[in-house]
Design brief:
By secondary structure, the protein is of the alpha/beta class. The chain has helices spanning about 45-55, 95-105, 110-120, 135-145, 165-180, 190-195, 215-220, 235-245, 265-275, 290-295, and strands at about 5-20, 20-30, 35-40, 60-65, 80-85, 155, 185-190, 200-205, 210-215, 225-230, 250, 255-260, 280-285. Helix 2 (about 95-105) crosses helix 3 and helix 8 packs across helix 9 (about 265-275).
Length: about 300
């Protein structure tokens, strides 16, 4: 049995209340080094509040939140990089000016500023003022600030906003490499489908509570794609499928069966043995954001707290 990885981020029993409104309710999770975790939930679920607590910008009503720990790799000139909402960019300052200011504060050389400009493909815009940048380039600048100095731990609040498909692919590749080198990332998003290509672990928040925590694969197993089948005797077909080990068949109100984990060929074979005629077989893939909506639908959203 391999030893447990040290923790990059750890949250336990975290509760936060503002003016009598509970924004976080007993939240707990951990993110080991060498992994990328996604904190996902709709507006108002408490994501940004949790990020503020992790960064020490806000104190929780109860519970604990810690960044780094023994063996986590935290240390050096800039142990933690953060991307926040709002981005905090000065409209009349240039791209390079922003990076030089942060580099000077962290004791990072100008050479590293040039490296991160090249890495984020902002070198050609180094002298451009923020107000003249496209939203996509502003997002890349905020990311460049977070990545400056190659910190082992990253907290990225909604980093995909403003990025096109190619820029998202670049960011995901960077975070994969970061994890392989022993770094760790906690990122937030409103879309489950958006983070599946990069997340090793998912923490889904709904109304300030954790409604799912685990791997994308486990979530997929609990919400599988289905084939919707119309048959001359759906009960006979379901009985035959169950006898062959395909027990996840749900009868719809229109009399059709929604069958998971069985291929079309397996359903047709079972129908033949049960002497059941199939009149329709339609794939019904489950979109990840439908799963997110189902997970968070019953969770109450704190009124007036779109965080």
């Amino acid at each position: 049995m391999s030893p447990a990885r040290p923790l990059a981020f750890s949250v336990s029993g975290l509760t936060q209340t503002f003016d009598g409104v509970t924004v976080l309710r007993g939240v707990g999770f951990s993110v080991p080094v060498g992994t990328t975790a996604a904190l996902v939930g709709p507006p108002g679920s408490g994501k940004s509040t949790l990020v503020e607590i992790l960064l020490g910008q806000s104190k929780p009503t109860s519970g604990t939140a810690s960044v780094g720990g023994p063996g986590s790799g935290i240390g050096g000139a800039r142990p933690l990089g953060a991307l926040l909402q709002p981005r905090g960019l000065h409209p009349t300052r240039t791209v390079r000016w922003h990076l030089l200011v942060y580099a000077a504060a962290a004791g990072i050389s100008d050479d590293e500023v040039d490296e991160i400009l090249a890495t984020t493909r902002l070198d050609a815009a180094a002298g451009v003022k923020v107000q003249a940048l496209t939203p996509s380039m502003q997002s890349r600048l905020a990311l460049a600030i977070a990545l400056l100095g190659n910190p082992p731990l990253l907290i990225l609040d909604d980093p995909l906003t403003g990025l096109d498909a190619a820029e998202r692919a670049w960011l995901f590749a960077h975070l994969h490499r970061h994890a392989r080198r022993g770094g760790a990332t906690l990122l937030t998003a409103q879309s489950l489908s958006a983070v599946l290509p990069v997340a090793d672990n998912l923490i889904v928040l709904g109304g300030g509570s954790v409604v799912y925590q685990g791997s994308p694969r486990s979530l997929r197993r609990s919400h599988p794609d289905r084939l919707v089948v119309a048959a001359s005797s759906p009960i006979a077909l379901a009985t035959m499928l169950a006898a062959e080990g395909f027990t996840d068949a749900v009868m719809r109100s229109d009399g059709r069966l929604a069958i998971a984990e069985a291929s079309r060929a397996e359903i047709e074979s079972a129908a033949g043995r049960a002497r059941v005629r199939l009149t329709e077989v339609i794939p019904e893939p489950v979109h990840p954001d439908r799963v997110l909506a189902a997970l968070t639908r019953t969770a109450p959203t704190p009124f007036g707290m779109p965080r």
